[in-house]
Amino acid sequence: EETAAVEAADAVTEDALAVVDGENAKKGKDIAKILGCSMRDVAAFVEDARRHGVPICANSGDPSGYYIAKTASELNSYIERLHHRENELATTRKSLIKIQKKNFKTW
Q1: Contact by Cβ (8 Å): 19, 35
Q2: Given CA atoms 60, 63, 64, 65 in this order, what sign does their dihedral have?
Q3: How many other β-carbons are positioned within 10 Å of the β-carbon of residue 5?
Q4: CA 78 to chain centre
Q5: How far apart (Å, rounded) are the C-alpha atoms in residues 21 and 12?
Q6: Which residue has the higher pLDDT, 103 or 56?
């Protein structure tokens, strides 16, 4: 029974990779519709695939969606965007911690 579950998961992963590996970025909701799964499942698939070496990137601009980097330049660009977002989140977190330390109700 466990082997069947692993094989089913592998089949879904192959289907999902085929959907993402196109010429254009694919929106998460479109991937979910094609695969018959939830957006949460798509996000989990993307993270799992990345952790197993698939260079899946995401774009929030136009066109938005997930795509597999075809070149080192595409991957580097995505990594830079992630780094920028990481810095922005750290700044926001620090600001909120300052508010929390002052006394949240006094702002």
Answers
A1: yes
A2: negative
A3: 9
A4: 11
A5: 14
A6: 56
| Phi and psi torsions of 58, nearest 5° | -140, 150
Of 41, 45, 58, residue with least CA distance to 18: 45
Half-sphere exposure of 65 (CA within 13 A, CB side): 18
What is the mean predicted confidence (pLDDT) over 21-25?
67
Please indicate, yes or no, whether the overall pTM of this predicted structure exceeds 0.85: no
CB 67 within 8 A of CB 59: yes
Residue type for 1, please?
A: E
Q: Is the bond preceding residue 63 a cis peptide, omega within 30 degrees?
A: yes
What's the pLDDT score for residue 11?
52
The residues with which 59 forms a beta bridge, in sequence order, are 65
Q: For 30, list phi and psi in degrees, rounded to 5.
A: -70, -40
Coil vs helix vs strand at 62: coil
